[in-house]
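Our preliminary data section would be incomplete without showing what the modeling component actually yields. Below, a chain of 311 amino acids is followed by its predicted structure, encoded as tokens that our downstream tools consume directly.
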Amino acid sequence: MGELSQEMVLEKQHLRLILNGKSAGRADVRSAVEAVRAMGHAVSVRVTYEAGDTARLCQEALRDHPLEKIDTLVSAGGDGTLHEVVDAVLHELPKGEKPPFAFAVLPLGTANDFARHIRLDPSDIPSCLRFAARASAKPMDVGEVNGCVFVNMATGGFGTQVTAQTDPKLKRVLGGAAYLFTGLHRFAELSACEGYIEAEGFTWEGAFLALAIGNGRRAGGGIRLCPKAKLDDGFLDLTILPVPKSDKITDLLATLLDSGVDGIQNGLIQRKARNITIQTQKSVQFNLDGEPMNGQNWQIGIRHHQIDMRR
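Predicted structure:
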């Protein structure tokens, strides 16, 4: 889990947990908090209950920091919770200013794609919180789409619609396999997207089945969409999956959702870029760490080393 070794943080920390209310009663979360307090660290917990609470609690953490010296703001939830926490903090600061504390993740969601990228084990919550208290804070990039940040990945097109339409109950039962089931079940209802994509030294126009802009590598329950992405290299990884011949679409979708882009042999387009412009003929949905946005014109960029993350 992570890479502690000589980079382990030895001084006592104050961790502020913003805990998704859905997980407030979990015994492993309580055990994790007790274990980290027993190590001598301070842990203050704030629980979300309704819409708007995450933003309010992030504002509170920024206000509390000078007096209580919050060292680490821990996003305790899934990828969507991490997105909300980082976006809310950065929204309160002048653009480009780094937050006064580091971030960490307590993976309590369904997919936990970002947590798995930094090698956290969602089945061992106490170890994840101990890691948040002990690991060094390393600079990390965040992506930006039309002024809204994302931590892990922005996805659009066919695959995004599959993710958005997957029933939450099915996700809980089947995990990542739910995306494959729902995608094939609703195949006739979905259509490809026509778009124009431009980045540094690169242009592409056509119909795509799915595209991903990755700061991280996985989305949608562990699907490897940007397998070479790095969290701190100053680039986003662009993956475009053009529409194949009609008789190959079902097989291609199954491969994508089952094996990620690693299983696709032909037609895949991949680039690294700092800035990307996307225009689509019709309104398309983008998911920023699972949070939906709709539109036709997208300005996408990277904020290099915008935050510190314990990883």
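The longest helix spans residues 53-68. The domain at 5-135 is CATH 3.40.50.10330 (Rossmann fold). Preliminary results of this kind motivate Aim 1 of the renewal.
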